[in-house]
Amino acid sequence: MAEVTVYTTPTCPWCNRLKDFLQEEGIAYNEVNVAEDPEGAKRMVKLTSQRSVPVTIIGEQIVIGYNPEGIKELLG
For helices 13-24 and 68-75, what crossing angle results, to 10°? Predict the structure, then answer.
């Protein structure tokens, strides 16, 4: 399975829903809290050209926003 990284902030309700979804599906992920990790925030902006969260990186693929179907499709 490809590595999954989720860029979040603690005040983002969609980030919390995304993390709940990943846990319910048994999908392991690394979390980068961009509110506390300025280098992580820069990395996310460089990858996506935007500042909104959540952003999910699966291998080389990017899923912006809360998109469970898109994540399931990429993890196949």
Answer: 40
